[in-house]
Amino acid sequence: xxxxxxNRLCRLLGTEHPxxxxxxxxxxxxxxxxxxxxxGCLGLIGAGSMRADFLxxxxxxxxxxxxxxxxxxxPLIHKHARACLEASLEEGVRIFVTSAGSPRKVAxxxxxxxxxxxxxxxxxxxAVKCEEAGCDAVVCEGFEAxxxxxxxxLTTMVLVPQCVEAVSIPVVAAGGIATGAxxxxxxxxxxxxxxxxxxxxxxxESSGHAAFKQAVVEGVDTLLVMKKHxxxxxxxxxxxxxxxALEAAGxxxxxxxxxxxxxxxxxxxxxxxxxxGELEIGQVAALIDxxxxxxxxxxxxxxxxxxxxxxLM
Amino acid sequence: xxxxxxNRLCRLLGTEHPxxxxxxxxxxxxxxxxxxxxxGCLGLIGAGSMRADFLxxxxxxxxxxxxxxxxxxxPLIHKHARACLEASLEEGVRIFVTSAGSPRKVAxxxxxxxxxxxxxxxxxxxAVKCEEAGCDAVVCEGFEAxxxxxxxxLTTMVLVPQCVEAVSIPVVAAGGIATGAxxxxxxxxxxxxxxxxxxxxxxxESSGHAAFKQAVVEGVDTLLVMKKHxxxxxxxxxxxxxxxALEAAGxxxxxxxxxxxxxxxxxxxxxxxxxxGELEIGQVAALIDxxxxxxxxxxxxxxxxxxxxxxLM
Lengths: 313, 313
Known about the structure:
2 copies of one chain form a homodimer.
Chain A: H1 8-13, E1 19-21, H2 30-38, E2 42-46, H3 52-65, E3 70-75, H4 81-90, E4 95-99, H5 104-112, E5 116-121, H6 124-133, E6 137-141, E7 147-148, H7 156-166, E8 171-174, H8 180-188, E9 193-196, H9 198-201, H10 210-218, E10 222-225, E11 232-235, H11 238-248, H12 253-270, H13 294-310
Parallel strand pairs in A: 1-2, 1-9, 2-3, 3-4, 4-5, 5-6, 6-8, 8-9
Antiparallel strand pairs in A: 7-11, 10-11
């Protein structure tokens, strides 16, 4: 039976399991974060699409749903990043996962507030910079991950051991992890824990549209598009065809960004427009074939982990 | 301590460890295959660059170096594939790993000769076709693998569990595996064993040029190029810059193939021309920092595996 009493990530976060529910635009609101926290994981509210006042409401709603600590994920390129960070601190949040930007930009205020500060990286070199900047842990996200992604194209299998070798702070594996067997694999690679996105996006408590969840259940084919400009992994649909064609025709970063916009992600994942919306999901979509509760997902992760390590004896 | 007495792959291949040394153009001749066999793995002679008479000599040389069974890897698109297969059978080889082509094309003669027959795949759909064609096992090779690669871009972390779910024959994980921790991760994912290329290419016994081995030791940056046409993962060098530029300028498959040619692989990996040659290697190049013997590599894999599973208790 899995016992993580002495796991470094569990001790850092105060969780039962070494599992972080990833912040995901339009999918990870108060309900998902609170359900993940209640199930023994770190739940994150994804602020990537939120204004500070909206985020503040989400934090309060999560607080009403659970007494356990929840965190906030802030992509640092988000135009409301600083305002979201300040609102979160004011609301009492003390665990932050930042991504898409330099951790140095926010290390000062976060450390001053006594907050835990974790940054998402796609290379060992950036993991080292995070440690130097004062991060308490790093999330190492491989090429197979959904949504926005590094340019390095390093996979979880290869990235995690490199980061483990490069830093002494806890390393959290992300990308391609949806099952207990994959959780066991990540820990065997030397990770202290995992961050899971796609699997938690397709749960009852995720704020994504039911049609989006169903599309992931039925779909298998994802592709990392716009590799030269704004790499993002998307489920196959008409919009992805359009953007791939535009890219192949030599569109500039600005033209691609204009077509993408924030509106497309909302349209696809929150409003359920499966044809014209942007459907961000990881390669593990192929292994996702139902829409369970968060509690059920966590139960499966733990029993699958035990089965995974059973194969190694 | 690792004990694979009841491992399905070990029982199928008659090996001590569930490890296949991959067939690799210009790297895996008689010395490498024999050393891998002596170290308790399945050693493969890579026929991808060989004429049938040359392969015949390599098989005989390997036989003189070890009494243990060795196998032959034959890429089925190789123009001498059928002749190599027949020469191998005549020389008494009864273990084949085929790749890059349809397993149906060779299932007849291999099964008739009573040979073990394993095919390399990059998707669960092809794994199912292999099982239907009578394969005894499949090698599932992820996006992070070196050299020629599937178009699917599925990583080892995601591909292996899909294949394990899809077929009942043994599944061998490949791509991104060079350490005992990665071996443990692959088995946790449900694989019965692993196929290891890059790590065995950079050993004393590999037939690759010393300068190529040293370039891998020093290098970290690989890239999958020619994704639309002939996907191949290469170490960073001038030749890769040239072919990437040609590809970006819209070169046809024929133009790229002409620039690549067979001569470039020989020039880079066998003759040691680091600037103008093709240097095929996997993402795990970043984790390779010396040129040990095969025996030392296998010892490290086993001790690293034990350490990897120790982390999971």
